[in-house]
Specification:
single chain, about 280 residues, alpha+beta, Aminopeptidase, 8 helices, about 30% strand, globular
């Protein structure tokens, strides 16, 4: 199959969303997610075209110390013809030019053979849990504060020791879009001890230094409205997060393999990550 690979454009978002729905066998629109991720890293999302028609896509969020790959999808009519392999090889070559030492992703069962072939190794699992948005919501914890713009630099620096890299730009885009849905816990000295950002239908990123305050942030997140089913993306090794979410009637709906290719093992401290931003951007 003769294909071309080029940067993904705003004009491609509708077609890309349709491909993601078909490839992931889902009715959930990811168009807003695509728009957000391109605000974070606009030049690192790519589409495969044949006769000028979009047939596949992939992207990465480059955090410097590592990059996270997401939304690797091919239209069902073009699958098993080398499109996915071509997209991944193109993306990995682009990241190599940027001297990214480690590339990570969360693979579905169907996608794993491709990543095995490309030299990715399995670290652990990443679990997706969901609950209906029409469930009973608790009152917001009285001491929970929203994150203000002046706190962003300190928060990004604090977060980097847990996440494994500074993701200030990602946090800024999320705060710009969800200013009233971002909550923080601080210790007695005023330093962050945890934070959570609630998106339209997803909780994350959610990071806790200690588990003791995690429930307060979850209560704050569940006290606000969502467009549809609420989703969280949890490192499988974070038993505290899983136990807490199960008490609030979240159920595991999917298990992905957390994988990496390059120097070192999994970055950061995944046992302190209660939810990733998403499967697509880590």
């Amino acid at each position: 199959m003769s294909i071309s690979i080029r940067p993904l454009l705003d004009a491609d978002l509708e077609a890309a969303d349709a491909i993601l729905k078909l490839a992931f066998q889902s009715t959930v629109s990811r168009r807003h997610d695509l728009w957000l991720y391109r605000q974070m890293r606009p030049n690192e999302w790519f589409g495969a075209t044949q006769a000028e028609h979009l047939i596949g896509m992939v992207g990465a969020t480059n955090y410097g110390e590592f990059a996270h790959v997401g939304f690797m999808a091919v239209h069902p009519d073009a699958q098993r013809q080398g499109v996915g392999l071509a997209l991944m090889e193109f993306l990995l070559a682009e990241l190599e030019k940027q001297h990214v030492p480690l590339v990570i992703l969360d693979s579905s069962k169907a996608g794993r053979p491709l990543y095995d072939k490309l030299g990715f190794v399995a670290y652990d699992e990443t679990l997706v849990l969901e609950r209906p948005c029409n469930g009973r919501v608790p009152d917001r914890a009285p001491r929970t504060q929203t994150i203000s713009a002046p706190e962003l630099d300190e928060l990004a620096q604090w977060d980097s020791s847990v996440f494994g890299a500074n993701r200030r730009k990602v946090l800024k885009v999320l705060l710009d879009n969800y200013p009233e849905r971002a909550f923080i816990k601080q210790d007695d000295s005023g330093r962050p001890s945890g934070y959570l950002i609630a998106q339209k239908n997803r909780i994350g990123p959610w990071v806790m230094l200690h588990s003791s305050n995690a429930e307060e942030l979850l209560q704050a997140a569940l006290a606000i409205p969502y467009d549809e089913t609420i989703s969280v993306t949890v490192p499988g090794g974070n038993r505290d997060a899983l136990e807490l979410l199960q008490r609030y009637h979240f159920e595991t709906v999917r298990a992905n393999q957390h994988m990496g290719r390059g120097a070192g093992g999994p970055p950061g401290q995944r046992q302190k990550i209660y939810s990733q931003t998403s499967l697509a951007v880590g």
